[in-house]
Amino acid sequence: MEVTFKEILPQQAWELMEKEGAVLADIRDARRYVYSHPQDAFHLTNQSYGKFLDEVDYDDPVVVICYHGVSSQSTAQFLIEQGFENVYSVKGGFEAWERNGLPIETSY
């Protein structure tokens, strides 16, 4: 059976972070990430992928978030293919995260 990522709601993602120490990987562009991002999110880019591999174990839960929950799916699948075991994509992305009033960090 092929391992695949799971789609979860923003609130479930926050609970995974709080209860299981899940790593939240924000894959949005640098300008938007710097402006505001989910609290404690790792900014995952092609450039930061090596650092991500240094900091995250393959059995750590990883939650991927993007703008609207579409591109995070392909990144989540990519992480599964790299050997990560518990990968999730946030339905509705950062837009839904904000709409649900979950914690964000901002630079404004």
TrEMBL record:
Coiled-coil ranges (or none): none
Q: Cross-referenced SUPFAM superfamilies, in alphabetical order?
A: Rhodanese/Cell cycle control phosphatase
Q: Which InterPro entries does the UniProt entry name for this protein?
A: GlpE_sulfurtransferase, Rhodanese-like_dom, Rhodanese-like_dom_sf, Thiosulf_sulfurTrfase
Q: Where is the active site?
A: C66
- Please state where this protein is localized: Cytoplasm
EC code: 2.8.1.1
Give the record's GO CC terms. cytoplasm
Q: Which SMART domains match?
A: RHOD
The Gene Ontology terms for molecular function here are:
thiosulfate-cyanide sulfurtransferase activity; thiosulfate-thioredoxin sulfurtransferase activity
Task: Give, as one word, the top-level EC class.
Answer: transferase
Substrates-to-products reaction catalysed: thiosulfate + hydrogen cyanide = thiocyanate + sulfite + 2 H(+); thiosulfate + [thioredoxin]-dithiol = [thioredoxin]-disulfide + hydrogen sulfide + sulfite + 2 H(+)
Cite the CDD domains for this sequence.
Answer: GlpE_ST
Function recorded in the entry: Transferase that catalyzes the transfer of sulfur from thiosulfate to thiophilic acceptors such as cyanide or dithiols. May function in a CysM-independent thiosulfate assimilation pathway by catalyzing the conversion of thiosulfate to sulfite, which can then be used for L-cysteine biosynthesis.
- What protein family is recorded? Belongs to the GlpE family.
Name it. Answer: Thiosulfate sulfurtransferase GlpE
Task: State the organism of origin.
Answer: Mannheimia varigena USDA-ARS-USMARC-1296
Q: What is the lineage of its organism?
A: Bacteria, Pseudomonadati, Pseudomonadota, Gammaproteobacteria, Pasteurellales
